[in-house]
């Protein structure tokens, strides 16, 4: 060996150097004494885009079989080392021959994994070691590797990095035949901007292809963004707002305007690219690799023949990306280009992240101009949903009425807290469409759940005797008759009414017995109770028919049902308070004015944004009943309210504050 190992390691490209470091880690983890050839090529197989792995696939060699052979050979190595391992004498020999192949034959300044493979197979001593490690190495075609190595490795990660660095010998710098073949293959290495193609997404191109949703109601914000982009310096807007208000949609709206030509002349023909910070960091385990990737993106943006604007979503991830915050992270690498106006960037982040990261770094904050994205008003949010209604109709094959859109916005704004419009309204409408589409192709839950319950009971109990089967047939007949009434009750009234206890209709008793149905007797009892309940209320059929007609006239019924699933209680005021609560409270308290007080208490509490009754045995309604002693029964009203909502007056906690008071004389 005539060349030092330190010099040879500096000739390795980033992929081979990372593989060498990984090989050393494998050696230390397994307690081996030397880093050998098997460790190195096993580490290369862990990189799916390198030359070596690509050659294995193109030569028809199974990478899994090769990995198993190398693992089997490594298992035979002597272990038990507790110190730092050393390089085997085979590795310097491999690196030296690979350097000769790279520099003399391929005329490339760095050793790639393809050169390591060719050196392994052409050096006699090393080839014997390779065949001992795995018989898969025999399947490589030496003629292709010697004479067509560049063509065989087109499209690999190493070829892309070499072309991005502008090194000689790359497909982009090669001969006419190589360039023609690379262009025909459509690989990233053949393109003029490989880094942009790999780490960014062209939003303008997606807008031309019609793959972006329409953006409505954000004309002011888009106009402010265009005004900032038209500046000569510090032309970098940052979209700030709460999560769900549509910051990314503003960037998509800008791309739609650029694609339509509805922008000032300096911005016409501009390409808007989304920079993926996570993809930039993925696999950048070697120090300096992340910086090289980001610099390659910046250089390609500067050298591009047409202007390019970068959009960085979740811009706070730039702080600390690729290094510690304040050192070699992405923010510090972008600062010089942002200050000079060479790199125009549209960023987006939430207010909390902006105050946490950007305001603390004054040098970074002054390079961005804030564009505030507020939550839209309900009419504007409804207009946004109307723009997406056609897309939902095509996706779910359902019809979305305008009333459903309006009610989705109104009810979600009223009852769903912690989220912003239009995000929560879109979620409500999207879920409603999905449920309707599912109902067209699947069994209703009211039928499927009892069927599943019977299947589970039959599986647990085994085959029943003949006597039970005879009784079971009779039970099924009664249950079928009761199930018809059950479905009428379940779907004849709005689903939101069942959020409260409707003792006046007897529905709570039916639910209790149905929940206890664990055998044929329980199912029979449920059917009998439903039939008796139907016979006990002769006017029920007429009342149900009237209310069903009333509900059918409401095209937003599906939206109401979906809100009942998404929020604790969504009460239909007119039906519940006029049809159910007032008669029940008056019957319970005996006084019409007491019923009116309690109804007003519930009605007012449910109209407060962020308040309301929650499911189970909890409540967020805190009311105060005032009245004269012996005239207004305040305690009775409180007990009646607890009995109405939870069916148990014992769930109410009563504290008599007068028992805790200390009466002291005025004179002390």
Write up this protein:
With 668 residues, the chain is mainly alpha-helical. The protein has four domains: 5-191, Orthogonal Bundle (Double Clp-N motif); 196-372, P-loop containing nucleotide triphosphate hydrolases (Rossmann fold, 3-Layer(aba) Sandwich); 445-537, no CATH class; 573-658, no CATH class. 58% of the residues lie in helices and 5% in strands. It contains 33 helices and eight strands. The strands form two sheets. Strands 3-5-6-7-4-8 form a six-stranded mixed sheet. The chain has a two-stranded parallel ribbon with strand order 1-2. β6, α19 and β7 (344-349) form a beta-alpha-beta unit. It is globular and about 95 Å long. The relative contact order is 0.05. Mean pLDDT is 72; it is low at 171-190, 467-471, 476-526, 554-582 and 603-620.
Give the helix proportion (percent range). Answer: 55-70%
Mean pLDDT: 72
Which strand order does the major sheet show?
3-5-6-7-4-8
State the CATH class of the largest domain: Mainly Alpha
CATH superfamily of the largest domain: Clp, N-terminal domain
Report low-confidence residues grouped into runs of 5 or more: 171-190, 467-471, 476-526, 554-582, 603-620
CATH architecture of the largest domain: Orthogonal Bundle
Structural class by secondary-structure content: mainly alpha
CATH topology category name of the largest domain: Double Clp-N motif
Care to count the β-strands? 8
């Amino acid at each position: 060996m005539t060349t030092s190992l330190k010099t040879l390691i500096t000739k390795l490209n980033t992929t081979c150097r990372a593989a060498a470091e990984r090989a050393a880690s494998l050696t230390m983890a397994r307690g081996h004494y030397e880093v050998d050839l098997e460790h190195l090529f096993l580490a290369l197989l862990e990189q799916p885009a390198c030359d070596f792995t690509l050659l294995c696939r193109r030569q028809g060699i199974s990478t899994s079989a090769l990995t198993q052979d190398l693992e089997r050979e490594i298992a035979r190595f002597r272990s038990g080392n507790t110190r730092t391992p050393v390089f085997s004498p085979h590795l310097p020999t491999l690196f030296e021959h690979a350097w000769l192949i790279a520099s003399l034959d391929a005329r490339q300044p760095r050793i790639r994994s393809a050169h390591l493979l060719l050196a392994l197979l052409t050096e006699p001593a090393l080839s014997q070691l390779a065949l001992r490690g795995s018989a898969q190495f025999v399947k490589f075609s030496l003629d292709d590797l010697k004479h067509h190595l560049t063509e065989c490795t087109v499209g690999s990660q190493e070829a892309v990095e070499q072309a991005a660095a502008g090194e000689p010998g790359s497909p982009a710098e090669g001969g006419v035949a190589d360039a023609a073949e690379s262009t025909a293959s459509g690989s990233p290495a053949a393109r003029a901007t490989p880094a942009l193609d790999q780490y960014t997404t062209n939003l303008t191109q997606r807008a031309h292809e019609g793959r972006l949703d329409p953006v409505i109601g954000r004309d002011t914000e888009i106009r402010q963004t265009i005004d900032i982009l038209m500046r000569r310096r510090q032309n970098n807007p940052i979209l700030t707002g709460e999560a769900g208000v549509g910051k990314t949609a503003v960037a998509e709206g800008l791309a739609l305007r650029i694609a339509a030509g509805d922008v000032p002349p300096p911005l016409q023909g501009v390409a808007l690219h989304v920079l993926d910070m996570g993809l930039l960091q993925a696999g950048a385990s070697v120090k300096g690799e992340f910086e090289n990737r980001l610099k390659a993106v910046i250089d390609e943006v500067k050298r591009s023949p047409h202007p390019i604007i970068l959009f960085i979503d979740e811009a706070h991830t730039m702080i600390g990306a690729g290094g510690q915050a304040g050192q070699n992270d992405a923010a510090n690498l972008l600062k010089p280009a942002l200050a000079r106006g060479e790199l125009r960037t549209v960023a987006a982040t939430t207010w909390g992240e902006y105050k946490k990261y950007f305001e603390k770094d004054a040098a970074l904050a002054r390079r961005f101009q804030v564009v505030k994205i507020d939550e839209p008003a309900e009419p504007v949010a409804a207009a946004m949903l109307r723009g997406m209604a056609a897309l939902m109709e095509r996706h779910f094959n359902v019809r979305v009425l305008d009333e459903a859109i309006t009610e989705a916005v109104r009810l979600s704004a009223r009852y769903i807290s912690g989220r912003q419009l239009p995000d929560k309204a879109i979620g409500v409408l999207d879920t409603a469409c999905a449920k309707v589409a599912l109902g067209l192709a699947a069994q209703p839950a009211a039928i499927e759940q009892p069927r599943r319950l019977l299947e589970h009971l039959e599986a647990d109990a085994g085959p029943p005797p003949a006597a039970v089967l005879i009784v079971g047939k009779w039970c099924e007949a009664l249950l079928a008759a009761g199930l018809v009434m059950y479905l009428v009750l379940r779907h004849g009234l709005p689903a939101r009414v069942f959020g409260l206890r409707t003792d006046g209709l007897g529905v709570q008793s039916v639910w209790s017995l149905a929940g206890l149905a664990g055998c044929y007797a329980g199912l029979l009892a449920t059917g009998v109770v439903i039939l008796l309940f139907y016979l006990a209320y002769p006017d029920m059929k007429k009342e149900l028919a009237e209310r069903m007609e009333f509900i059918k006239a409401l095209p937003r019924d599906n939206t109401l049902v979906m809100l009942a699933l998404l929020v604790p209680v969504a009460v239909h005021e007119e039906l519940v308070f006029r049809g159910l609560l007032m008669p029940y409270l008056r019957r319970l308290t005996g006084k019409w004015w007491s019923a009116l007080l309690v109804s007003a208490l519930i009605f007012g509490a449910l109209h407060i944004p962020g308040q309301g009754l929650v499911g189970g045995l909890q409540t967020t309604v805190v009311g105060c009943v005032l009245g004269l002693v012996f005239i207004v029964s305040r305690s009775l009203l409180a007990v009646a309210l607890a009995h109405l909502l939870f069916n148990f007056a014992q769930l109410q906690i009563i504290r008599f504050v007068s028992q805790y008071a200390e009466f002291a004389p005025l004179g002390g």
